[in-house]
Structure formats: structure tokens, C-alpha cells
Write a structure and sequence with these properties.
Number of domains: 3
CATH class of the largest domain: Mainly Beta
Radius of gyration: 30 Å
Largest sheet: 13 strands, antiparallel
Strand content: over 45%
CATH architecture of the largest domain: Sandwich
CATH topology of the largest domain: Jelly Rolls
Structural class: mainly beta
Number of helices: 4
Mean pLDDT: 95
Length: 476
């Protein structure tokens, strides 16, 4: 006679004898350095032997130090940032059932301030990051005059960043945001050896950087119809010639914002011209106005976005547009390769930028510019059809760290145009650059604009700061 097994008996025998379902999951990445290790126990386990460490062979062979626990969780003594750990759980009863080797990798960093906790009531951003409006010690303003006080559109991560207005036109000729920690911070905990933060500026009219890049901002309804509105940075071209440039970035003020190379007969808003450009949403466009004051035409190749290379060549009255993904292999920019536009021998050749929205600023970063033919003169800029914004002044940015004993160190960002960078830039500061302060007892952090060590009168602007973290081996 047979009896039907109870549901509990069936469930019991279907439960494996080995530990299973690890948390963190096997091969997980970005795991918190504060994590606990949890698993589902085997059916006969009365206790558990946990082998844990950074050597997978020692864990697999059982030569790593074992910890005996009765519950099915384990808290490591300490985890380091950016480290891969291995662990194994053996289920112990009268018989020991060895488990599989699992692994996980910890997050590379932990937040000092990601600016997400601030609100418009009891935790305002300028109550934690003290500015010159509050203490009168510098030309800074943290946050906006009206709520929301934190920046909620220009962000690197999450939903908020810190906006820092600077005015270095009057003494003390620098502007900084200062945070005093309630208790001294141990910045070497969890193996941290690097400070990292993200910066973003506001482009000016035209900047040529020491790195061979060009940064420009613009507004304007468009380069289109019978009259244009845009900013133009140009040189002189006599006869035949060409210009090549890499459009490294373009802020999306509108899907039809445009940045690229233009050859133009004059600075008149309705001038004849040929223009090959990159757009955020509509690919690479080749457009032309064959007669002064006439409407324009264009053909686009969809699906292409910055960074991308464009080239415009003049041969007599024939203008040819090309594009390239790498600056080496070139193809026709669009299905229309060339157009004929009668122009004077002496024309203007340069970089054109428009936001396609008179109320919204765009900005572009260009690099690897080269020309052929008789291109002469220094760069000039023109506001065609619309008054263009000034943008930020060019000034250094710095971080100053002070410990609980009052020792401090100031580190200056190496980018000479950092306040005019229109896209987020990672700034990584290895601890070797912070020699002179006790990083186990950090009391104050300042982020500033200007020359802190030798202040001198300069300009104004606004920069954005986000995602300040500590980490281990953080890449540039």
C-alpha cells in the first residue's frame, strides 16, 4: 500500500542541499561597500561556513579564512571601492555540502554630495553650500533667487545640480561655494584614493583653447529662409579653398540647431552661402542660398549626430560638402554632393552656429580644424541677424580642502576654458595632489572660480557642479 506524500514533504525534498540564490547576485557589479551577503540555505543546513576574499582560488579550495554563522547572512568586516570579491557558502550538518564560488564587484565610488537631497523648504542648497551672499566673503551665489533653488535641467546625474554664479569684478576677485561638514570626514575610508566631481560651464561668444579646440555659443531663429540669425566665426578666403572641422558636441536647443562649416559672400543676413552642418535630430545637412535674399534649400543624411566631421570645399563657383565619422574616410555629405553658387573671389569661411530658437541658447565644441587654399587673417566673430549672448568669462576653477586642524590645499583645474565648456567635464583629483591635509579628518570643501592664490579682477558667469564622489582608482 502506498501513501501520498504531503505537500511539505515534497517541498522539502525539492529544496537543494547546497546554498543558492546569492545576494548580491553572482557577478553583480556596482555593489555597495555596505552590503550584506545573503543566500537561501540548503535543506539540511544547521550552520554555514562562509569563505570570503579577493582570491578566487583560495575561496574555491577552502584555504581562505572561514567564518561559521548560524543565520543565512554574513556581513564582511570591510569592503573596498572598486574591488572584486569571491565567496562560497558550505552548508553544514552531519555532512558538509560545498557551495559554488560566487563573485561581485563593489562600486568604484561613494557620494560626498550628489545634490539630490536638497529641497525648497528645510534643506535648501545654499544653507549647506555657503556663498558670498550669505557670508560676504566672495562674489558667489549658490542656487537661484526663487524656488526651485537647485538646478533641475542641467544635471549630470539624478535630478539636481548646484548652480554657482560668480562675479569676480570686485574684491576679493574670486567666488566660491563652501561646505563645512558637521563632523570631520574620513576620505580614505574604503580604500578611497581619488576625489572626483563634474563641472559644466556656459560657452562664450568664441573661444580658442590651448588644446586646439574652439567653443562657441549662439541663439537665433535659424539659418534659413531669406535672412539668417546666428553667430559666425570666420577668416578670409581668396579663390579656391576648404575647411575641415570635427563638431565634437552640440547642445540640443532644438532638433534643427546647426553647427558646421560655412562659406559666405558677406555678413549680410540674406547673403549667398553654402553650409554643411550637424544637427541633433536630423543628421548632417547641406544647405545653400544661391542668391542674396532668396529662400534656401537643403538635403540631409539622417541618423548622424555629433561628434562628426564635416568638410566644405570651394572650387570656382562649385561648393562640395563631405562628411566623415573619423576624419579619415570621407563621403558626400548628402545625396546632393555639390551646388553651384556664383560668388565673388574674396569670401568668408568659418564656423556657423544657430540654436533654431531665439529664446534658447545652444553651444558647440569644435576641434581638429584645418584649411586649404588662401585662408588668411585672425579669427573674427559676427552677430548676424540677432544680438548674441556674451556667456561666461574665462577663469580657472579650483577645489580647496581644509582639515580639522586648519591645514588646507588648493588644486586648480588644468583646463584653461573650463568655465566655458558647455558639456559636463569630469575632474579627477588623485590624493597625491592633496598632500598637506589630513584626509582622515576633512572638515571643509570649497569649490571656486578665479585665482584663489593670486586674486585679480576678472568677469562673471554661472557654472554647474554635480556628483562629487570619493573612490578608488577612478579613471579620467
Amino acid at each position: 500500500m502506498t501513501t501520498q506524500a504531503s505537500l511539505s514533504e515534497v517541498r522539502f525534498f525539492y529544496v537543494p542541499v547546497q546554498a543558492r540564490t546569492p545576494q548580491p547576485a553572482d557577478s553583480a557589479t556596482g555593489v555597495s561597500v555596505m552590503t550584506d551577503l545573503i543566500w537561501r540555505p540548503g535543506r539540511e543546513a544547521q550552520s554555514h561556513e562562509v569563505y570570503f576574499g579577493t582570491d578566487p582560488n583560495a575561496v574555491a579550495k577552502g584555504t581562505a579564512t572561514a567564518q561559521t554563522v548560524t543565520g543565512h547572512s554574513f556581513t564582511p568586516a570591510s569592503l573596498l571601492y572598486g574591488t572584486t570579491y569571491y565567496w562560497r557558502v558550505d552548508e553544514v550538518n552531519a555532512v558538509t555540502y560545498p557551495g559554488d564560488v560566487w563573485s561581485f564587484t563593489t562600486t568604484a565610488s561613494g557620494a560626498v554630495d550628489d545634490f539630490e537631497s536638497y529641497n525648497n523648504d528645510k534643506s535648501r542648497i545654499y544653507d549647506t553650500w555657503i556663498d558670498g551672499v550669505t557670508d560676504g566673503k566672495s562674489g558667489s551665489q549658490v542656487g537661484y533667487d526663487a524656488a526651485p533653488f537647485a538646478e533641475r535641467t542641467i544635471v549630470h546625474g539624478g535630478a539636481q545640480s548646484l548652480p554657482l554664479r560668480y562675479d569676480n569684478t570686485a574684491a576679493p576677485f574670486y567666488s566660491e561655494a563652501k561646505r563645512d561638514f558637521a563632523t570631520a570626514q574620513n576620505w580614505t575610508d574604503k580604500g578611497a584614493d581619488t576625489l572626483r566631481l563634474y563641472l559644466r560651464g556656459t560657452a562664450g561668444n568664441f573661444t580658442e583653447t590651448a588644446q586646439g579646440e574652439m567653443i562657441m555659443s549662439a541663439i537665433g531663429t535659424d539659418i534659413w529662409d531669406t535672412a539668417d540669425q546666428f553667430r559666425y566665426a570666420y577668416e578670409n578666403l581668396s579663390g579656391n579653398g576648404s575647411m575641415v572641422v570635427r563638431v565634437g558636441s552640440l547642445i540640443r536647443s532644438n532638433g534643427w540647431a546647426k553647427a558646421g562649416v560655412m562659406i559666405r559672400e558677406s555678413l549680410h543676413p540674406g547673403s549667398k552661402h553654402a553650409f554643411v552642418c550637424v544637427t541633433p535630430d536630423y543628421g548632417v545637412s547641406f544647405q545653400q542660398r544661391p542668391e542674396t535674399g532668396n529662400v534656401m534649400s537643403q538635403v540631409a543624411t539622417a541618423g548622424l549626430v555629433a561628434p562628426y566631421w564635416v568638410k566644405l570645399t570651394r572650387t570656382g563657383d562649385v561648393f562640395t560638402a563631405q562628411r566623415s565619422a573619423d576624419g579619415v574616410t570621407w563621403v558626400n555629405a548628402t545625396t546632393t554632393a555639390s551646388v553651384t553658387i556664383p560668388m565673388a573671389s574674396n569670401v568668408l569661411i568659418g564656423l556657423a552656429l544657430t540654436s533654431h530658437d531665439a529664446a534658447i541658447l545652444t553651444a558647440a565644441e569644435f576641434s581638429s580644424l584645418s584649411t586649404t587654399g588662401n585662408v588668411t587673417g585672425a579669427w573674427q566673430t559676427a552677430e548676424i541677424g540677432a544680438t548674441q549672448p556674451k556667456g561666461n568669462s574665462i577663469e580657472p576653477m579650483y577645489v580647496r580642502i581644509q582639515d580639522s586642524a586648519g591645514a588646507s590645499v588648493t588644486v586648480v583645474n588644468a583646463d584653461d576654458a573650463i568655465t566655458r565648456r558647455p558639456t559636463w567635464r569630469q575632474w579627477t583629483i588623485p590624493y597625491r595632489d592633496l598632500v598637506g591635509v589630513n584626509l582622515n579628518r576633512v572638515k571643509t570643501m570649497c569649490i571656486g572660480v578665479g585665482n584663489r592664490n593670486a586674486p585679480a579682477a576678472d568677469g562673471t558667469g554661472v557654472v554647474f557642479i554635480d556628483d562629487i564622489v570619493l573612490g578608488r582608482g577612478l579613471a579620467q
